Amino acid sequence: MARTPAREPSLDRLIDAALAASAGACIVLDEGLRVRFATASAAALLGCPIPRGVSAPALLCGDKPKRPVAEALAAGLPVHALVPRPGGDDEHLVRIRSVPLGAGSKPLGWLLALQDAGAIGSDRTVEFHGMSTRDAGMKHVFAVVQKIARSDATVLVRGETGTGKELVAQAIHRLSDRKDGPLRVINCAALPANLLESELFGHLKGAFTGAIRDTPGHVQLADHGTLFLDEVAELPLELQAKLLRMLETRTVIPVGGRDPIAVDVRVISATHRALRQEVEAGRFRADLMYRLRVIPVFLPPLRARRGDIEVLTQRFVDEFNARGKRRVDQLAPTALAALEHHDWPGNVRELRNTLEYAFAIGEGPELVAGDLPPELVEPGLDAEPMLAAAEVRPTTTEGPPEARRIAAALTRTAGNRDQAAKLLGLSRVTLWRRMRQHGLV
After folding, report:
1. pTM (2 decimals)?
2. Could you tell me the residue ranges of all domains in the chain?
């Protein structure tokens, strides 16, 4: 019987490249669940060699009591499971998804697609570019950020105010090939349309009164780097058209100019609004939305990951302890309970500001409930605010909870919006917008 000739090394590399390009890290199995081929990235992900002919159930599950992959494959069922990394510790997980190969009721074999799931299945706290979590949803976000950083595609970060959208943008930039280039940040809600156009696209000398020199905008200044557009849903329609042109042509025309200037910029944008709803309302261009949200990233609010409140609280306590004005060595159980039961409309930013308030108000090495803002300890205290500022109308217990919180913050700060925004964990622009929304102006 003639021996099957050995596969040429160059052919192996070709197959590896083809599979890696089409399926990423993967393993090809025959009908007997033996490994016929595995990409180099699959071996790196599993942390161990993948010899041809080895049993896939033995490779992936070993002698563990739980063998979801082995049992499903043996039964001819599709697999979508998390398993401990064979070549690492039990806390590092690999996500496995099976795809049957061949037509008919009985597959000729299987393709196992592998994905790094990090420590999603554990309660271990993860630190990631200035963010801390033990929540599975946030760990998934971190894993997504690591992957999309390698791409140059536009990213849209969705999340409520204070959830860390700018930190995500910074992480994507630092993990990308553009990390040595500039990261430019501009808040689209912070400037009127005429100034925003100049800030974004620059202007030429004499373009308008006061334009005494040629000035590049953020787009040009971000060349070979990343441009982060915060609150992109607030961008006026006339500027949306100009941004769309920049994304399509990779050029920018300054205010007062005619000649396009080539730019090499990756755009990351963020918003707390649903852009599809803004498109339906006629406030946002559909073609720009599709350009901006090639890769959407959704950040969960703090109230959806209450297990992170204790983690973040300790992080901020350590931060404020380092300042040296007051040292807190422990958190009273009643104080932690009050923090964990609050809804945190301002999310992580509001939590940080609350703890900064507690450090300033309280004394001694223990942070107690009395150090916290009154509405956290006794939520009913904000129901009948005595407003000091004439520009703010009083609210009643019938008002929305957010309106009562805003009114209470303005009361405590004697109507100072900057201080009230800090207490609530909001930007001044967001506070003003919500005051208008609730009829407080």
Report:
1. 0.62
2. 9-118, 127-298, 302-437
